[in-house]
Structure to design on (439 residues):
C-alpha cells in the first residue's frame, strides 16, 4: 500500500546531484513535511507514494535549488549605478557615500527585490553580508527563501553603527532573534582583512565557533589587497588568517583571486571553503581566481554572485556558465571546469561550504528545495544531457517552478509570496532616493 505524502512532482528529467550524480528520465519526487520523501522513476514513486495532487512539469528538468554563497542582497538598489570604475573608486566615491545614508526601509525593499530575482531564477538559498541585516531577515522570512545572514563586521563608520564596538550587540540581538528559525541561520560576516582589524576578525571567528555558525569574509580579492596586507601585517591575506587561527572548515573565503602557490595548500589543509564569484571579479577587473588549481589542491569551491551592483545579476545559471567557460579560456584546458563541476559548485559544494547537509542534492530526507528548468524552450532542445543544458544554454528566466522546504514560491510566472507589482512601484521610489543622494 502506498504511503501518503503532500505532493508529487513529475518531470521528463531529474538531476539528483547525489554522490553518483544520477540523472533520471521520466522522474518524480515525493514531498512530505518540507522534505524529499522519495525520488526516482515516476512509475516507482507513484507506486509507493500517494498524494492529493501530482504536478506534471512536462519537458522540464528538476534540479536541487541553487545556492548563492556570496552576496549583498540589498545592493540590488545600486544595480547599474556608476558601472565601469576601478573597485576602490567605485566603493569609496559612489557606493560608500550612499550606503552611509541607507535606511532600514531601503534595505528591506532591496532585499525583497533580490529575493524576487533569486526565486525567479532558481536560487533557493543564499548567504548575505550587509547593513541592517535584520531587514534582510524579515524579507527572507516573508518570502520563504532560505539564508545564512549576518551584519558586516568592520571598523568603518556607516549607517548601522558608528563605533566598531557597537556591532557586537547588534550581532547578539540578531542571533537571539533568528537562531532556531527553520530557514534562517545567523552567520558571522567579517568584511575583509583591510576593513576588519585583527582583534575584530578574531572575535567574529570565536563568536562563530561558540554559536556553531558560519564565519565568512572577502579574501584576496585583488592584488592591491595583498600588497596592503603585506605592508600592514607582513603577510599575505591567507597567511594572515592562518596566523590569527581563523582558517577552518567553518570559514568561507570569498573571491580568493590573488592566491599564490603557498596559499593553496594552506587553505586546503585547513578545510576552509571558497566562494568563487567570477562575474563580479571580471566586472571589477579584479582578475580570475585560480579555481582549477584550488580544486586540484582539494579545496571545496562554491559559487556566488556578489552584490547586484558588481555583477549585475543574481542569476546563478549565468554564474555557472561563466565559471565553466572562463577557466577554459584562461588555462586553455577544455576540462578545467566541466558543466557537472559548475553545477556541483552551485549545489552540493555550496551546501558543504554552509555546513547545511540537507541541501544541495535531492534524496530521501533532504530538504524539498528544488527547481524545475523548462527544457521545452526552443533554445534548450534537443536534450542529450540536461546538466550541459543547465550550464551552457539555460538562463534563470527559464525556471518554471521554485520550491523551498516543500512550499512553492514561484510557478509559471506567478510569485506566491511576493506582490511583485507593488514591490516594483516601491523600488522606483528607492531609485529616486538613491539618485538624490549621489554626490
Ligand atoms: Zn562581496
Amino acid at each position: 500500500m502506498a504511503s501518503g505524502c503532500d505532493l508529487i512532482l513529475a518531470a521528463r528529467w531529474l538531476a539528483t546531484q547525489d554522490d553518483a550524480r544520477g540523472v533520471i528520465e521520466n522522474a518524480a519526487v515525493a514531498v512530505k513535511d518540507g522534505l524529499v520523501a522519495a525520488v526516482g522513476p515516476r512509475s516507482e514513486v507513484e507506486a509507493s507514494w500517494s498524494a492529493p495532487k501530482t504536478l506534471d512539469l512536462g519537458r522540464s528538468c528538476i534540479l536541487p535549488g541553487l545556492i548563492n554563497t556570496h552576496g549583498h542582497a540589498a545592493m540590488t538598489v545600486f544595480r547599474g549605478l556608476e558601472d565601469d570604475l576601478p573597485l576602490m573608486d567605485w566603493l569609496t566615491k559612489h557606493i560608500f557615500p550612499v550606503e552611509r545614508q541607507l535606511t532600514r526601509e531601503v534595505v528591506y525593499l532591496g532585499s525583497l527585490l533580490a529575493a524576487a530575482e533569486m526565486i525567479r531564477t532558481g536560487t533557493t538559498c543564499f548567504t548575505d553580508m550587509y547593513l541592517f541585516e535584520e531587514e534582510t531577515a524579515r524579507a527572507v522570512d516573508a518570502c520563504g527563501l532560505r539564508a545564512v545572514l549576518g551584519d558586516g563586521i568592520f571598523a568603518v563608520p556607516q549607517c548601522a553603527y558608528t563605533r566598531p564596538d557597537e556591532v557586537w550587540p547588534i550581532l547578539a540581538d540578531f542571533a537571539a532573534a533568528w537562531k532556531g528559525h527553520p530557514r534562517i541561520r545567523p552567520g558571522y560576516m567579517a568584511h575583509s582583512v583591510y576593513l576588519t582589524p585583527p582583534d575584530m576578525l578574531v572575535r567574529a571567528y570565536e563568536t562563530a565557533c561558540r554559536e556553531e555558525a558560519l564565519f565568512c569574509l572577502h579574501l584576496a580579492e585583488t592584488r592591491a589587497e595583498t600588497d596592503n596586507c603585506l605592508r600592514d601585517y607582513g603577510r599575505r591575506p591567507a597567511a594572515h588568517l592562518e596566523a590569527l587561527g581563523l582558517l577552518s572548515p567553518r570559514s568561507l573565503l570569498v573571491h580568493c583571486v590573488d592566491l599564490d602557490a603557498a596559499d593553496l595548500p594552506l587553505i586546503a589543509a585547513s578545510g576552509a571553503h571558497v566562494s568563487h564569484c567570477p562575474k563580479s571579479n571580471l566586472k571589477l577587473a579584479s582578475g580570475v581566481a585560480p579555481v582549477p588549481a584550488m580544486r586540484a589542491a582539494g579545496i571545496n569551491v562554491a559559487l556566488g554572485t556578489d552584490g547586484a551592483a558588481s555583477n549585475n545579476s543574481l542569476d546563478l545559471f549565468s554564474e555557472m556558465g561563466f565559471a565553466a567557460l572562463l577557466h577554459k579560456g584562461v588555462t586553455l584546458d577544455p576540462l578545467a571546469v566541466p558543466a557537472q563541476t559548475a553545477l556541483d559548485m552551485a549545489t552540493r559544494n555550496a551546501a558543504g561550504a554552509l555546513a547545511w547537509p540537507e541541501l544541495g542534492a535531492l534524496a530521501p530526507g533532504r530538504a524539498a528545495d528544488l527547481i524545475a528548468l523548462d527544457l521545452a524552450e526552443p533554445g534548450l532542445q534537443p536534450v542529450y544531457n540536461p546538466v550541459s543544458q543547465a550550464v551552457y544554454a539555460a538562463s534563470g528566466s527559464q525556471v518554471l517552478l521554485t520550491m523551498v522546504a516543500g512550499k512553492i514560491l514561484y510557478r509559471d510566472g506567478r510569485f506566491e509570496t511576493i506582490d511583485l507589482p507593488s514591490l516594483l512601484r516601491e523600488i522606483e521610489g528607492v531609485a529616486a532616493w538613491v539618485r538624490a543622494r549621489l554626490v
The two ends are 69 Å apart (CA to CA). The chain has two domains: 3-64+362-415, 66-353. The chain has a mean pLDDT of 96. The first helix runs from residue 42 to 48.
